[in-house]
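Sequence in, structure out.
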Amino acid sequence: MMDEGFLGYPRSNGTIGIRNKIVVLSSVVCANTVVRRVAEKIDNAIAITHPFGCGQGGISLSNTFNILAGLASNPNVFGALVIGLGCEVIFSSLLADKIKKSEKPVNSFNIQDVKGGTISAIEKGISICENLAKEAGEIKREFFDFSHITLGLECGGSDFSSGLSSNPSLGILSDKLVNLGGTSILPEVAEWAGAEHLLSRRAINEEVAQEIMNLFKGKQVENRSPGNIAGGLSTPEEKSLGNITKGGKATIQGVIQYTEKPKGKGLWLMVEPGLDVISVTALAAAGANIIVFTTGRGTPFGCPVAPVIKICGNPKTCEYMANNIDIDASPIITNGKSIEGISDLLWKKLVDVCNGEKTNAEKLGFDEDIGIWRA
């Protein structure tokens, strides 16, 4: 039965992709246009560009380097080409070496080293990626169980409906995946404030419980955006109580830092700032091969390397932004539909997307935006 597994792309490092992408990656902002021009000419290629890579140091530099390497190392990526300029602080060759640790085919070059400048660099990039695309096309989908899925649990544009409908529906799905041997990652540390004691009770041991509590020791956190407040979230604690329901009831295995990957299966917490694009990017860089994004007020964006399923419980948003929403959870509020019933629909959607069905964000081409936390 397909409900017990999915057809995915095997990788040599043991991970499984639900997409088979070629990543064209800029190591520095100066290479962005060349990267985009190359990716435009290659089927199933994606351009990952950003405004950084030069004039950085310290934690900002390491965050940029690790996020870029993590995205290109995602299980949904077959192989990558890194293009640099040649005089930046993030060397294209070093970034490529980091990505190669995921055992993918990776190439790199600098524009300054190509005679003919931009035009010749684009031609060189296309030639390299055509070979990668040919190799990727030889990889066929095989049947795998859901222990090979890493799920990112994200929310954004939250309102009164989120904690009542879409978030708990996702929590049930997360628990199901974990029970099947899979992995879930709950990010957005600021949005646990006031509910950290509830998370700590679910920790696998006292050390993890204390680590969760220490994140908020001596801190007062305002985690609501103006849109959250306008959407009816009255206090930071109300937002947090709704947020953590995305993580279901599973035991929390540990806390990972920004740019880290989970150290095993099960549910993990990720420390990062809770800004939507940064969160989704961090989840994909941590190895999430699929992300479910709950929203009340609506949001359009996706992710370059991981499909993003949108679920919404606000009936007005589901009407106004219907082409952005994959699962309408509003019947929980309007028609007495059970949370479990909506979660079943969400699970079916997840299975279908794992088997190749495109999310609305993918159909609309929301596949270039990334965010990097400069700390």
